[in-house]
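#lab-general

N.A. 3:47 PM
ok so I finally got the sequence cleaned up, no stray characters, all 315 residues accounted for. can someone with queue access submit it? mine expired

B.Y. 3:52 PM
send it over

N.A. 3:53 PM
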Amino acid sequence: MKRRDFNLLFLGGAKRVSMARHFKEAAQAMGLQCNIYSYEMSGHEAIASEATVIEGLRWADPAVDAHLRGIIAEHHIHAVIPFVDGAVAVAARLADVAFVPCGTPESADAMFDKVRAARIFADAGLPIPTTYSEGMPSLRLIAKPRRGSASKGIVEIHSLQELDTILGKSSEYLIQERIDNRREYTVDCYADVNTGEVLVACPRVRLQVAGGEVTKTITVDNRALQDLSARAIDAIGLRGAITVQFIEDLDDGRFLLMEINPRLGGGAVCSVAAGADIPGLIIRQALGMPITKPEWTPGVEIARYPAEVVFFPNK
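B.Y. 4:20 PM
back already:
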């Protein structure tokens, strides 16, 4: 019997080769054939080893929505998965023509503005690093570009001169206390798109990071982080695949919420490998199939490595 097709569109999935394989494996376990397309600026991206690459427009291009809608119709796309910040709001605007497991365009805009997000977290009573206010005596501060990502543009403040420089353009930064003795965590989550119930909250320690992206990470059994993540997701009203970032202040044991990205993170392959079957949940929800909370295993570690995809002329 011919398998039923499940057609998936990645937005900015250039390096997400392992995640593409996890989606294919999840679909195969359900008796489905997963066909993946990936919307990229160039056809020469690593994801071409697992997907059909469609060269497209920039996320800010006024024509991008219409272009994507045409692709969704042409390839009978069931679900759209954003993998980069700029694609989240774009994907959310397509929810009327495909299953999109992320929040609304408004929630994406709020979470990707660090200043606005910090206010939302504070108003919800969530624990965050102390945010700088005028006259704050401590110089253990860090300034983050309010719309930055992948740790780019972060400035550590060690002197009054550095502080004055940042304050001169304070509208461009979120300025908070700097936690020097810390441990960093990511919690890979999935909230039922219909009910908001958090079905997955899998914490992992960020053991090594390069270029803002984790290269070595391990899942951990930490009930406090699971509960905090579920509380944050519920308070903000997010849905679908969500990446929650925390730091632990090793001097006093505080867990502090740093940011929430309403999309799958690059290191989520570790949680999926541990049994947190987010790809399976997405496929099932897209097709209206029953879903249950998956069981995952702590202590599962991954080490990510670069690999080559070779493109020959005219191929």
